[in-house]
Amino acid sequence: MSEQGWRVEVSRGCIGSGLCLSVAADHFEFAGARAKTVRGVLARAEDLEAVRAAAEICPASAISISENLSA
Ligand code: SF4
To answer: Helices then strands (H, E): number in the chain?
Structure first.
């Protein structure tokens, strides 16, 4: 199965505000005091839009999105 798409990561700068869960509940979950991604790689554009919205609202700028080149 192809891994092409976008890679999503939450950095250690996450302050645990929970805003990403409020705007993209399917894509983020808490792991202790910090958020983590439910799936590290996205394949669908609609998922990318949801995660982008979370990245824009994140007060710590802790969510990064990059093209997944490991296919
Ligand atoms: S919005 Fe940002 S700071 Fe808040 S929980 Fe999500 S990744 Fe962490």
So the answer is: 2, 5
Which residues constitute the domain of residue 18? 5-68
| Predicted TM-score of the model (pTM) | 0.91
pLDDT, tens digit (0-9, with 9 covering 90-100), for 2-60: 557 999 999 999 999 999 999 999 999 999 999 999 999 999 999 999 999 999 999 99
Task: Name all residues whose Cβ lies below 6 A of ligand 1.
Answer: 10, 14-20, 28, 35, 58-60, 62-63
Number of domains in the chain: 1
For residue 39, the domain's CATH number is 3.30.70.20
Contact 31, 69 (CB under 8 A): no
CA of 4 to the centre of ligand 1 (A): 25
